Amino acid sequence: MKISFCTLTWTLSVTGSQPGGGSVYFHGVGPYTITLDHNDTWCLKRWGTQVKLLCTKSRSLPVGPLSWKDENDICTQLHIESGLQLAPTGVMLTKCSPDHFTCRDNQCVPLEKVCNSENDCTDGGDEIDCFTAHPLATYISTSPPQIPLPFQVDVNIRTADVDLMNAAVRANLRLRISWEDARMEMRHLQNVYKRLTLYNSTLWSPNIQTFNSLEFATTASHPVIMAKRLSPGKRVEGEYLSFPGHGNPVVNINDLHTHTYCRYDLLKYPDDIQTCNITFQILNVCQDGLKWELPSSSEVKCPVFHKEFWVKDCRFLLPDNFSSRFFVQLTFRRKNAYHIWATYLPCILLLGIGYGTLLLPLDNFNERGTMSLTTLLVFISLYAQTTASLPRTAYLKRIDLWYVFCIAFLTLVIFTNLATSTTTNTRGTTAEGPFWWHPSGPVEQRNEAWSSKKLSNSSTQQQQQQEQQRHEESRRKRKELVLKTASVVLGVTSLIFIIVYFTGAYITM
């Protein structure tokens, strides 16, 4: 068995009888013994004397983590005798090796399993006092470890949303920041990241805010400071594993919600590609107080899904390698599925209906006029609904050009239908459209002139009827020619516009 007190380790043996009649005592290789005196009190004495150096109370053998009372400043005396500097660490009688933790029942647990969130001792003694961060005397929690401070940032953008009406972008992201702090000692680290905790104190960590935020402050969950073992660590005999701050990075995990300004270019809407920069500022470090570790700080994970956009690219940008400000650049490309089904397809169907009125019979003016006018009104309402959901701009967007063409197309269709209209008045005579010119005068006027002469000749009446039929046939042919010409010109024009429009949209993608 071994007893460790101060910084010395002594090997003791167990003997069945004690000089002087005692039942059990421990005799070490040096001039020391541990004997049971009275009232369950065990004392460490120098061999052959009754001077008590250390004492503890235990109804059983005094092994394991017990409280030993220093009766005669044994630590100072032993260090003077051995020629060592004074560095007391406590006293414990144990059978365990220096790389094991001693439980209260004298069970031995490897130091790697101490404070691993699992009770390896029967009483859970290995999970007590598990503070992982122990600042040194030179630690100042309000100052960074060094200037410039080597820094590394990984960005994981979980969700991103484009706010067109407010010219902003919303993003939920996680920043993983790592640095080294040689001003503290870390204990009980595992092979996975473990939260750093300390007693009645705080650790220095970067204070991060967004620089171009539209809100008063960026809302964030409480930052989590973590670390994991990257080296074997130093074994403190029978107690814990110690890890220096140098060589074992500290990781700060921040979950942030940002609402930042973004300048959108809607000239090519809805086939637009938008680029937004989210600027972060570390407030508790001077302007040139960081030294970025590149390219390890260039890892940015983009969100996989967005309902309106494809996240085309995510980048990590720096003004320079020593700046306390950094950028996360997001590039969005709008999805076309919504506008294909909600805008383009209905518009093309309405254009087809309006164009179809040019193919109706010439005499069906009521049907042609009603259908074309109704289609135009539907287009105007769709245009008003679309523009209401977009911010106002001083320039025409691509979607505006689409609606302007469609409205102009239907307006020309209506003018064509009006120009070729023919209606019958209450007297049974025909009235021409408002845009039609009659070079020889109305037939009705010539009929009245002929009737005033009171011609009763039947041949003259037949000639009158034939002349009237020829004029009506001539007007009808001219109207049909106008309809055919308009249908061809408008059809070819609309086809060319649609091809050019969607070809340009495809090229911009």
TrEMBL record:
Subcellular location(s): the record lists: Membrane
**CDD domains in UniProt:** LDLa
- Subcellular location, principal: membrane
Q: Which domain of life is it from?
A: Eukaryota
Transmembrane domains' residue ranges: 338-360, 372-390, 402-420, 481-507
Q: Which residues form the Neurotransmitter-gated ion-channel transmembrane domain?
A: 343-479
Q: Where is this region: Disordered?
A: 448-476
Residues making up the signal peptide according to the UniProt record: 1-16
An annotated GO cellular component of this protein is: membrane
* InterPro entries documented for this protein: LDL_receptor-like_sf, LDrepeatLR_classA_rpt, Neur_chan_lig-bd, Neur_chan_lig-bd_sf, Neur_channel, Neuro-gated_channel_TM_sf, Neuro_actylchol_rec, Neurotrans-gated_channel_TM
Q: Describe its membrane topology.
A: Multi-pass membrane protein
Its recorded name reads Uncharacterized protein
